Amino acid sequence: MYQLTINSLTQEQFLAEYWQKKPLLIKQGFKDFADPIEPEELAGLAMEESIESRIVTNHSDDWQAYHGPFEDFSLLTEKHSTLLVQAVDHWHSDAAQLLEPFRFIPNWRIDDLMISYSTPGGGVGPHLDQYDVFIIQGEGKRHWRVGLPDANLKQFAQNKSLLQVEQFPAVIDCVLEPGDILYIPPGCPHEGYAVENALNYSVGFRAPNQRDLLSQFADHLIDTELGNQRYGDAELKLRSSKGELNQTEAEKVKQLMIAAINDDAVFKTWLGNSMSQPKHDMDLAPLEEPYTLDDVNDLLNDEDVVFERLGGTRAIYQVIDDKILLSINGVNYMHDLTDLELITKLTDQTWVTAADINSSKNNHIFLKTFTTLLNEGIWFC
Ligand code: SIN
Ligand code: CO
Which residues belong to any copy of the JmjC domain (predicted)? Predict the structure, then answer.
């Protein structure tokens, strides 16, 4: 278990003073930091077809980016090279543990754990990210500079898959050592170059934009055949110009569209479904001999049983009147509000003991959901 200390700040103070506001150097955020993964294992992941990886090199200031999967690592030279692997929390349960200390930020905002391995001088160059990120230093050292958002900073493509930003003044300029952490809000330019072979872990967040939200909501209406209400104008009066679509009509069209979003049940069903979609296809191993509800009841009686949640699982809930809409990996489950304590165990924790949830023994609806999750391999013991 990793224990996070944010300098002398409480989590509330960090959120109030820094989150989405300004960058922060957290010295020894993790004391006695032990890397959860070896560089060789990271390289192994980068050989897999289904895992997103890149190698970036910057020999003599010539920036090149290569996309995985990789058959060998000749591009990862002794100097000026970086291997980056996305969403490692899906594939490596020990590395996934690094997300846990950051779950004081609502889980649906967490995107993934990206891990990089850089050789001296290696990095991805000066750039901006659209999202908040905590960069944790593992083995080795890396020299980081972080600036403040500046709308005048010009972005340019070093090559077709490497967007960089021009040089910027730094407000943080430091060499990170194992266990140090940088918090970087969206839009803050930053660059980091390895001083010695270095592992870095980026806990990345996500913030959907209007375009993606609206297009996903529209897809949901299409899939569920909802949103059928049509424009109507029974009050129409004769007008001098027939060419104009007037302000009242424009407003009525807008209200018609907003009415679709304002249907709370439709909206939250979509939101749960959409926000709990995993980043990648899950690496699921469904049970060959599925449990019955009685089997799960028996498991809950066994105090030695510990249930674990599969890495990469997205689990959130929303309260809708006296119901709870639980959403796990894109599937919704409706529960009574009285199940709130049990539901939060499945959304706020990545493991539970049988004792934690054995109050559900006679709760048919909860048991049904939990049995489904066990049978699909989303939770396992
Ligand atoms: C890296 O680890 O090289 C990149 C992390 C980042 O700048 O977001
Ligand atoms: Co970055």
Answer: 94-222
